[in-house]
């Protein structure tokens, strides 16, 4: 197992969830009764990840508190004879080494990843976007890592999307080489429908080479005035094979209120 470290950027403002996001970090908003970030962390743990790096802003210490030691409600639950609930939660991340880095200006996903350069010490590392929740029989990230072990390279997760979604997403020009594996020729951030090379969208799971940091440092600000990871990935293409790994499972974009509601309904009905 080559991949041990995952970066989870959670520093976004969560403007779509105003006014709740005035006091609650978007990553802690619940899918039914469980913060969305918990599902991402469990996917990481069940995929063999041992080190997590959260990219947060200075006003998101509630994220640190959630993954810290015992707090008041834990004590109350134990006093009420519900210690098992506390233990199940704490056991889900007790063996993780968790670090935090700060992104004080929201300059995009590429910039968020760049903040971790000095604490990543692997040739390849994982990036997991907490807005993308995947319910699957086996952890989707684990399947992706297994594919990496067979075909080394840079990886992005891919999902087919409807035409109306294309202008809001990162889209790839890719050729299928196996049942769920693609060779990527080009990545385009938020193209118009006419300019989109396909309906294959990048989903929030990546396996990135350490060299990505060099490109993130040197790219210009792109779409939405932000440092776009897709721009850096296009530069990687000249040096390293970039694969797309086909999505499997039930996926929800909980970065929108409707997506969060849909994920909650799904979780309630299925669990």
Brief summary of the model shown:
With 271 residues, this protein is α/β, with parallel strands linked by helices. It contains 9 helices and 13 strands. The strands form 3 sheets. It has a 9-stranded mixed sheet with strand order 5-4-1-6-11-8-12-10-9.
SSE order, one letter for each helix or strand:
EEEHEHHHEHEEHEEEEHHEEH
Could you say how many structural domains there are in total?
1
- Tally of extended strands? 13
Mean pLDDT, to the nearest integer, reads 89
**Helix-residue proportion:** 25-40%
Instruction: Output the strand order for the largest sheet.
Output: 5-4-1-6-11-8-12-10-9
Notable characteristics:
271 residues, nine-stranded mixed beta sheet, two-stranded antiparallel ribbon, Spore Coat Polysaccharide Biosynthesis Protein SpsA, Chain A, 9 helices, alpha/beta
Describe this structure as you would to a colleague:
- The chain has 9 helices and 13 strands.
- The strands form 3 sheets. A 9-stranded mixed sheet has the order 5-4-1-6-11-8-12-10-9. A two-stranded antiparallel ribbon has the order 2-3. Strands 7-13 form a two-stranded antiparallel sheet.
- A hairpin with a 4-residue loop joins strand 9 (170-176) and strand 10 (181-189).
- It has helices spanning 36-45, 61-66, 72-79, 83-91, 109-114, 140-150, 212-218, 229-236, 257-270, and strands at residues 5-9, 30-31, 34-35, 51-56, 97-102, 124-128, 132-135, 154-160, 170-176, 181-189, 200-209, 242-246, 250-253.
- The chain has a single domain (5-270), classed as Spore Coat Polysaccharide Biosynthesis Protein SpsA, Chain A.
- The mean pLDDT is 89.
- Helix 3 (72-79) crosses helix 4 (83-91).
- It is an alpha/beta fold.
């Amino acid at each position: 197992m080559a991949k041990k470290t995952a970066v989870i950027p959670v520093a976004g403002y969560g403007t779509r969830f105003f006014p709740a996001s005035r006091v609650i970090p978007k990553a802690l908003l619940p899918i039914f009764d469980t913060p969305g970030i918990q599902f991402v962390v469990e996917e990481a743990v069940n995929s063999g990840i041992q080190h997590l790096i959260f990219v947060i802003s200075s006003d998101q210490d509630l994220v640190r508190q959630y993954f810290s030691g015992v707090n008041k409600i834990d004590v109350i639950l134990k006093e009420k004879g519900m210690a098992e609930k506390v233990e199940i939660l704490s056991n889900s991340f007790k063996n993780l080494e968790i670090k935090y880095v700060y992104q004080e200006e929201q300059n995009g996903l590429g910039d968020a990843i760049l903040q971790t350069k000095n604490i990543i010490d692997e040739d390849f590392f994982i990036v997991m976007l907490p807005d993308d929740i995947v319910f699957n029989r086996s952890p989707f990230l684990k399947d992706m890592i297994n594919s990496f072990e067979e075909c080394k390279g840079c990886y992005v997760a891919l999902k087919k999307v409807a035409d109306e979604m294309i202008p809001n997403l990162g889209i790839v020009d890719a050729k299928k080489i196996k049942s769920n594996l693609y060779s990527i020729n080009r990545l385009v951030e938020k193209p118009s429908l006419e300019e989109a090379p396909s309906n294959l969208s990048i989903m929030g799971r990546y396996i990135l080479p350490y060299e990505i940091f060099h490109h993130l440092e040197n790219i210009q600000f792109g779409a939405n005035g932000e440092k776009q990871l897709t721009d850096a990935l296009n530069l990687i293409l000249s040096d390293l094979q970039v694969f797309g790994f086909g999505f499997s499972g039930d996926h929800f974009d909980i970065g929108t209120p409707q997506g969060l509601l849909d994920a909650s309904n799904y979780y309630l009905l299925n669990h």
